[in-house]
Amino acid sequence: PGLVTLLHRLEAVSGLDRIRVSSIEPLEVGEDLIEWLATSPVSCQHLHIPLQAGEDGILAAMNRPYRTAEFAVLVARLRARLPRCKFEKRRGKWDGVVYIKIGTTC
Prior knowledge:
Layout: H1 3-11, H2 31-39, H3 56-61, H4 68-81, E1 85-89, E2 98-102
Antiparallel strand pairs: 1-2
């Protein structure tokens, strides 16, 4: 079972009022996770998705399996399904690290 299956199982746990998904790679954010974030009554609607670098050459040198264009598509998908989506850019270990926060955090 995948992450979304686990999240649906956790929704059934008595007394568990909030679930916050954090530190997830861009390629792990599929339509099923976006749908869960948008519809689950216990979802904090929060993701931390590190881009790591804003340049394809740096991403390739870091052996990341995605490029900036793919990340932009993910951002568009998130904005389309989660209109309150907020995007926050911070500097980290490498220049260009981007963190995404969706809605309000718990």
